[in-house]
Amino acid sequence: MNKVIVKICMGTTCFVMGASDLQELSDIIPEKYGDKVEVIASTCLDFCSSSTESQAPYVMVDYDVISKATVEKVLEAIDRKLKHGQK
Ligand code: FES
C-alpha cells in the first residue's frame, strides 16, 4: 500500500501567509493516520508566483494542490484520498 504524501510548503511566502500554523499537522497526522500518511516539510513548491501569492500557504496531498491551506482542509483532503480507496 502506497502512502499518502503530504508536502507542507515552508518557503518564505507560504510561511508568512500562515504555513507555520500547519506545522501541527506533523503531530496530528501520525496520530490520526499512523503510517498511511507521511508529512514532509518542503522548500518552495513554486506555486507562489506573484499572481497567486495571495492563495498561499500551499500544501500538496499527493498530486492535489491545496491553496489557502488550513489544518481542516488538509485533513479533509487526506480523508478523501483514503476513502476513495486509491491508497
Ligand atoms: S513559498 Fe510556498 S509555494 Fe513558494
Descriptive terms for the model:
Glutaredoxin, binds FE2/S2 (inorganic) cluster, single chain, four-stranded mixed sheet, 87 residues, alpha+beta
Explain the layout of strands and helices.
Blueprint: E1 4-9, H1 12-16, H2 25-33, E2 37-42, E3 59-61, E4 64-66, H3 71-83
Parallel strand pairs: 1-2
Antiparallel strand pairs: 1-3, 3-4
The structure holds FE2/S2 (inorganic) cluster.
Structure description:
The protein has helices at 12-16, 25-33, 71-83; strands at 4-9, 37-42, 59-61, 64-66. With 87 residues, it is an alpha+beta fold. Strands 2-1-3-4 form a four-stranded mixed beta sheet, covered by helices on one side. The N and C termini lie close together (6 Å). The model has no long low-confidence stretch (mean pLDDT 91). Residues 9, 11-14, 44-48, 56, 58 line the site of FE2/S2 (inorganic) cluster.
How many structurally independent domains? 1
Helical segment tally? Answer: 3
Provide the CATH superfamily. Glutaredoxin
* CATH level-1 class: Alpha Beta
Give the assembly state of these chains.
single chain
Give the second-level CATH assignment, the architecture. Answer: 3-Layer(aba) Sandwich
Main structural class: alpha+beta
Query: What is the ordering of alpha helices and beta strands?
Result: EHHEEEH
CA-atom Rg in angstroms:
12 Å
Beta-strand portion reads 15-25%
Low-confidence stretches at least 5 residues in length (pLDDT < 50)? Answer: none
Instruction: Give the beta-strand count.
Output: 4
Helix content: 25-40%
Mean pLDDT: 91
Question: Which fold name fills CATH's third level, the topology?
Answer: Glutaredoxin
- Give the strand order, joined by hyphens, for the main sheet: 2-1-3-4
